[in-house]
Amino acid sequence: MHRLIAISLPLWMFALFIAPTVQAQAAHHPIVAGFERFYQGNQGDAASGGRLLLNELGCRSCHAGDKGSKQAPILDEVGSRIRVGHLRRFLNDPHGTKPGTTMPDLLHGDPQRAEKVEALVHFLASTGTVRPQRIPPKAVAAGRDIYSKYGCVACHGTRKADGEPDRILPTSVPLGDLKTKYTLGSLTTFLENPLHARPSGRMPRLLNSQEAQNVATYLLQGSVTPSTGRGITRYSYYEGNWNDLPDFSKLKPRASGTGPAFDVGLARRNDDYGLRFEGFFTAPRPGNYTFTLSSDDGARLYVDDKRVVDNDGIHATTTKVGTVRLTEGVHAVRVDFFQGGGEAVLEVQVRGPGLAEQPLAELVAESAEALKKKPAAKQPSEDTLDNKPELIAQGQKLFSSLGCASCHTLRIKGTPLASTLAAPALEKLTATKGCLADNPNPGVPRYGLTRRQNQSLTAALASKAPEKTPASTIRDTMTALNCYACHSRDKVGGPQEELNKFFLTTQPEMGDEGRLPPPLDGVGAKLQTEYFKGLLDRGAHERPYMHTRMPGFGTDNVVGFIEAVGTLDKLPAIPPVTFNEPLPKVKAQARHLVGGQAFGCIKCHTFNGIKAEGVQGIDMTLMPRRLTRDWYHAYVSDPQRIRPGTRMPAAFQDGKSVLPDILGGTALHQIEAIWLYTSDGKSARLPAGMGPAFIPLTPTTSAIVYRNFISDAGPRAIGVGYPEKVNLAYDANDLRIALLWQGAFIDAARHWTDRGSGFEGPLGENVLKLASGPDFALLANPEAPWPNKALRPEGYRFLGYRLDKEDRPTFLLSVGQVRIEDTPQPTLIGKEMGFKRLLSLRSETAVPNLHYRAAVGNKIEADKEGWFRIDGSLRVKVTGGEATVRKVAGRMELVVPIRLKDGKAELIQEYNW
């Protein structure tokens, strides 16, 4: 199910689909998105809609003792998330404070309502402390952009530049007054991992920590934060060039004073400086406190002079975490930071007992005295609460007796509070009484149900629930989690006209395929089970061209869904495919097929994270891990049949390829080859033509010599491409042939554009990496190890090369007094390409201990007609000397002693692979 995108701020997106785009009055009935879309008015089967409401309104939690339906928010440490004023208003008037809420009014008509609300507020607030925070304006624009693009608009309507509601559709789920409910830290924490507090999955995971903070900043801009005297530290500023943090206590600062806590803007230049921040903060309770330190470049954090987090060194933005046990009270904190060059980042977060994760800067003061002193300017607010133990105790009892504990989990010393409310069983409910009455009696929850909602619940209670089937499991899951808001299946659902324009793409030329989440028809046959589980659990953003994301709903909320689609969605099984060529050659041909000179898959798909030239389709190396093999074959062979309207071109007609000369020209063999090639993932070699520029060097009538940095051949590499489509790279440092390969020669774009830095690898395939170290060596005895240290002091010299009339090189070198000429030439044995290497040696003096190493491998076996097979694939043959196999340091070597006659010797080595 790719990208069930932003479907879930509790109960949402459906509401946007059946209503005209107009400003609407806030609804005072519970908004259940699936019900609003499919069952409101006279739509759908009333009993089906009622069964949806039984789950989404928490009816089963009270009347069946079943918390397996939609779980209400977990209220552990709710006091550290929600402001006191909001708790008070919400409990007094749930529907007026949060229009559309599914939370019933438990105290309507109760003459002691005010007293009970206050007791509940004291109890809930005792679970933690909300810390007011400043709203940094610099993140507002980024948060507004994320809100409008990632899917939030589809559920909650558009918002103005100041974060206030703009256009609320009749079926939108309002967010309520967030500014009086959350602080920046608590809303950020919630948005980053909503399943922690709301495990039901109706609000899924969607944002990373920085994105969550940006969106929270946008939504909370304009919040009034009481002045507390916090956010100030002493600082010392230094200048210098360091690779690691210096001991600032031994340096003289260029400036010092008090200023904003951990603010690198206090520096007087952009690079090569350091800052020390010193202040104090209060640990509200004893226990373990966790500090998160993000920096670019190095930083350390100390508490009471104890190093807690070490993030030292030159690096991009990196996050480190440390934990320390603290007593209740005031503690000294110090942060040391230095900046080398580039971006300067310093962020410090803290969390602990009763302290939600938040910026430490909001909690520190320049001195312990300033921390303890109450700011004169601070005035009591609605969020001020003087805790009263007797009210906390009373509130805890009410939490159980009113039925709050039937829906909500709240742990006291690790044990969840149990509900003492006894509600009748579902089958004993009467349509016109209790919660279903038009005006419920005091003491009975009041939901504010619409007539249609009441009718639907009544119908559900009066009918027997049908037996679960795969089709009903799919339908119920997609309705409850609002998957239909973005995806269609069986021609049901998908974005409606009112929302269509909010689904955006970075590639407009892709049309709807580039901006709308895909239909879920056949998804059970499409996605591999383990990948599907991870996708639904954690979410993903694997379509780089699509702004809308696939959120994560949590594994527990999709139980049975994957099995259900797997049962219904089937494709013909593709039998195993047999090739007549070795697997490396099959993959090499597949590499050519996806490249820019064949099918051109890389024109539209990223590959191992490298962008395509045009649209940025899903990464090809992800597909074998993501897709089933049967679906992959079916889709690639006939894209329009599997996904009508796709821009994916067809390369096959009636099972035949448009490239008939590769792998027999059949769709089956070519598609299977690409599947095997891309299954190598990050180890798959890049296709030819991948990258921002492509300058292939192609030998035609003569060889091409390319001197540059070549991967696995060193910085003094000499590449040689031959018209016969075999190539080599000579390592002039180690005096050896380092690489042999077949097919295309090399792409010069890396070295011929921009700064030309870095190593470039072979462009072709069947790359053979030969052993490191020189090909010739002077050995003290036949058992001596082959040299692998610097060669020049040992008398090895590279003397250059000469070219023949076809620009084919002969490499010139000397080992001691021996001069050697090395002339490689391509060969063709049947259909197999290879090399024949002529080695001519001359010396005026006797050299009794010179040896030539023809091959190295884990296994070397003698083959017929004088050939040797190396590790089962490479075949070599040496004439002009007696080749012997020896074992040194756990590996086998094929070595030829050199016998000079009249000061001359000649060897011929052949390679075939």
Describe this structure in words.
This protein is an alpha+beta fold and 913 residues long. The protein folds into 6 domains: 13-73 and 423-463, no CATH class; 78-130 and 384-416, no CATH class; 137-220, Cytochrome c-like domain (Cytochrome Bc1 Complex, Chain D, domain 2); 232-372, Jelly Rolls (Sandwich); 583-683, Cytochrome Bc1 Complex, Chain D, domain 2; 696-912, Beta-galactosidase, Chain A, domain 5 (Distorted Sandwich). Helix content is 23%, strand content 24%. The protein has 27 helices and 37 strands. The protein has an 8-stranded antiparallel β-sheet with strand order 27-28-29-30-37-34-33-32, with no helix packed on it. A hairpin with a 4-residue loop joins strand 21 and strand 22 (726-731). Helix 6 (113-125) packs across helix 14 (389-401), helix 7 (140-149) crosses helix 12 and helix 22 packs across helix 26 (667-678). The longest helix has 13 residues, at 113-125. It starts with 32 loop residues before the first helix and ends with a strand.
**Radius of gyration of CA atoms, rounded to a whole number:** 36 Å
Number of helices: 27
CATH topology category name of the largest domain:
Beta-galactosidase, Chain A, domain 5
Class from helix and strand fractions = alpha+beta
Beta fraction: 15-25%
Count of all domains = 6
What is the end-to-end distance?
A: 44 Å
Reported CATH architecture of the largest domain? Distorted Sandwich
The helix fraction, in percent, is 10-25%
